[in-house]
Amino acid sequence: MGIKLYYTTVTASREVKSQQAEVIRILESKSIKYELIDISVGGDVREEMRSKSGNPAAIPPQIFNEDQYCGNYEMFSEAVEADTVEQFLKIA
């Protein structure tokens, strides 16, 4: 599978929950297949996300194409506005 979405099922942040839900909704509306990776299962997965993104403070959602970093929610949102989601996800 190509697109990987790092997310969390355990958060008190409404902002994180709504951002994750919006990314998933948009990917599904565009029929883009993706794999969900839950960082709440353990610190190793969270550290993997942060290492791959190059940001030691990264929070979900973080989006990758395989191991290639695409961006965070803000970057994804900008791509949606510009209608460049496929290029953002590196699947164009």
TrEMBL record:
Where found in the cell?
A: Cell projection, Ruffle membrane; Cytoplasm, Cytosol; Nucleus
Q: Which Gene3D superfamilies match?
A: Glutaredoxin
The UniProt entry, under CDD domains, shows: GRX_SH3BGR
The UniProt keywords, alphabetically, are: Acetylation, Cell membrane, Cell projection, Cytoplasm, Glycoprotein, Membrane, Nucleus
- For this UniProt entry, what's an example GO CC term? cytosol
Q: Which PANTHER family match?
A: SH3 DOMAIN-BINDING GLUTAMIC ACID-RICH-LIKE PROTEIN, SH3 DOMAIN-BINDING GLUTAMIC ACID-RICH-LIKE PROTEIN 3
Name the job this protein performs: Could act as a modulator of glutaredoxin biological activity. May play a role in cytoskeleton organization.
Protein family:
Belongs to the SH3BGR family.
**UniProt-recorded name of the protein:** SH3 domain-binding glutamic acid-rich-like protein 3
